[in-house]
Amino acid sequence: MEEEVEVAKELIVGLLEKMKVNPVLEGFSREGDVYLEIKGDEKGILIGKHGRTLDAVQFLINRMVNKRVKEPVRVILDVNDYRKRRVDHLKKMALQLGERAKVRGQSLTIGPFSAHDRRIIHITLKEDPSLRTESLGEGEMKRIKIIPTQQERGNTQPLE
Hints:
Blueprint: H1 2-18, E1 24-30, E2 33-39, H2 43-47, H3 52-68, E3 74-79, H4 82-104, E4 107-113, H5 115-126, E5 131-136, E6 142-148, E7 156-158
Parallel strand pairs: 2-3, 4-7
Antiparallel strand pairs: 1-2, 4-6, 5-6
Helix pairs in contact: 1-3, 4-5
């Protein structure tokens, strides 16, 4: 796994140099995945709105690394613990909106969200038996409908 970590580090450093970013980079492997953690002040340019730039860079690095190593590997890229903070934020938001849907007795529609963000919201609310969720829309960015299980049919309130 050491080879994959070194290849990933080399490629991300090259990419970041072209972006004129000088971060501190840490790379390691865990459970068959390669983790690259970037620490630095230029976090905004690397994360982008709702982590979309970070997701795009991670996608590129995955493709580049897997062209250079023997066995396929998943590379997970993070900047200043953004992904952990994003997961915590999504869980908190999902729980608050789930409570709002139950109190009002009406469905709420939120989003759009990436597949990763939708998964976090669905899993968080799955633990509450008085709620159910479903994804709405086409394409990569979809909305989520939070539905109280005791709701009357037809009560839907979009939430922006």
